[in-house]
Write a structure and sequence with these properties.
By secondary structure, the chain is an alpha/beta fold. Helices cover about 30% and strands about 20% of the residues. The strands form 6 sheets. Strands 1, 2, 7, 8, 9, 10, 13, 14 and 17 form a 9-stranded mixed β-sheet that branches. A two-stranded antiparallel ribbon has the order 3-4. Strands 5-6 form a two-stranded antiparallel ribbon.
């Protein structure tokens, strides 16, 4: 069984997150995207944990499912597809087959080695009992867990990991979006140079890191010190449509699916079962390049060095991005990787592909109409982007869309890199190429 997992998202209780992020809606959108295993996010928040306990029930060992999945929508455009039973109007319910893993993200802000550190850490647990024990340990140490779904702790990485393991030895920790300048464990603003430096004697308990949107496996493999670690990818979704923008693809027999097996595959870097990660093109991440957003400056590592680390327009410090930070810590070149490396596959979300084809915004009626046509036809978004034969896609959506998906699968795109909090843009066609397709009337029924 192919299992696509997205194990870092947030709830409605996290700052700057959609109020629509409820358990039932998360299950629904996991179904739409083609994600079979989804993180709950935010299990440290007292209100959210109570909602999760009410909404979820045990499934396989250490995993959960919805008690009452949402009815398949009666309105046109969101369901009624024989290829995905969860989308059958009147026969099944959204998210009924989706599994949840108890997860949370913690923001640690502390001093270590004479420097202020700000690091985001992902936590996973196989049971509500273990979660509640961990939350109590944090609260007893003065943590204010009710203020935000992603709480801020004045604890070090090592201390937080200790409490997580004290609550349950099966609890696991993964440093989040490790290269992000401000909150990545290797970030240029407040991070460390290695896992050992951050966790000390407990570094052996860390067996995976999350690449984040602004880096990909090839960039991470440039650090041989991280060869023992497994690279995982997740969406860090703050709204429902962002679910699945990065993910992990495994092959696990249904009879063997469990929290323990999922974590074993990651811990042991089992390449027979862990097939690949789904990645943004790293240029699309909002901290890929160096730069200064207020002045519209994007800079390469060499340009930053040339400018003396300051914006040539206003003189303020340039935000050093992921590309520069990787270059600073790397001890080998691109293309070198460990023998048991998990490959990464770069994709572009379907809505962005369709918007590029139409030359219109992602949320326009035109783009959304075709998006739901394709979901109905294929069953879910990953089935369109990864699996649907190009010939069939051409019949359903037209030549422009078929060509765009083909180029995405072949990773033949033109990126405009993001920097200093500004997302990058992935261009699939030149303006002339898109006009070539549209001008022949091939898209009239769709666009």
């Amino acid at each position: 069984m192919r299992l696509i997992s997205d194990i870092e998202i947030h709830s409605k209780y996290s700052r700057a997150c959609s109020p629509a992020l409820t358990p039932e809606n998360i299950g629904k959108w996991a179904d739409i995207k083609g994600v079979q295993l989804i993180g709950t996010g935010d299990f440290t928040h007292p209100k959210w944990i109570e909602e999760l306990k009410a909404a979820l029930e045990p499934a396989e060992e250490g995993l959960y499912k919805l008690r009452n999945p949402l009815p398949s929508p009666p309105h046109k455009g969101e369901g009624n597809n024989k290829k995905n039973p969860s989308l059958q109007v009147g026969e099944a319910r959204w998210g009924g087959n989706v599994r949840f893993i108890l997860s949370a993200e913690i923001s640690c802000i502390f001093s270590q080695g004479g420097k202020l550190r700000r690091v985001h850490l992902l936590c996973y647990s196989p049971s509500f009992a273990s979660v509640e024990k961990f939350n109590k340990l944090l609260a007893d140490k003065g943590a204010k867990l009710a203020g935000d779904g992603r709480p801020i702790l004045g604890m070090s990485c090592a201390e937080t990991l200790k409490y997580l393991k004290d609550a349950d030895s099966q609890n696991q920790m993964v440093p989040a979006h490790v290269w992000t300048p401000y909150f990545g464990i290797f970030g240029s603003k407040s991070g460390f140079d290695s896992i050992d430096e951050a966790f000390g004697e407990q570094a052996k308990e860390i067996f995976a890191i999350e690449t984040g949107l602004s880096s990909d496996p090839a960039m991470n493999y440039r650090l041989s010190r991280n060869d023992r670690l497994t690279l995982v990818s997740s969406s860090d979704a703050h709204s429902l449509p962002r679910i699945g923008r990065e993910a992990n693809v495994m092959e696990i027999p249904e009879s063997e699916l469990s929290y323990g097996e999922f974590m074993r595959i990651i811990r042991e870097k089992d390449t027979d079962r862990f097939k690949f990660t789904i990645e943004y093109f790293p240029e699309e991440g909002k901290y890929h390049m160096d730069g200064h957003r207020d002045c519209g400056l994007a800079a390469t590592p060499k340009e930053t060095e040339k400018y003396g680390g300051r914006c040539p327009k206003c003189g303020r410090k340039i935000t050093v991005g992921v590309l520069s930070r990787v270059e600073e810590l790397a001890d080998r070149g691109y293309g070198e990787e460990p023998k048991n490396a998990i490959p990464g596959k770069h994709l572009v979300p379907l809505e962005e592909v369709l918007a590029e084809c139409a030359g219109k915004g992602v949320k326009t009626k035109t783009v959304q109409g075709l998006y739901w046509q394709l979901i109905e036809k294929a069953g879910n978004e990953f089935a369109v982007i990864l699996d649907m034969p190009i010939g069939e896609l051409k019949k359903v959506a037209g030549e422009t869309v078929a060509e765009a998906v083909k180029r995405v699968r072949e990773e033949k795109v033109n990126p405009i890199p993001g920097y200093d909090g500004e997302y990058g843009v992935i261009k699939i066609f030149t303006d002339e190429e898109r006009e070539h397709f549209l001008g022949k009337g091939r898209q009239k029924s769709l666009f």
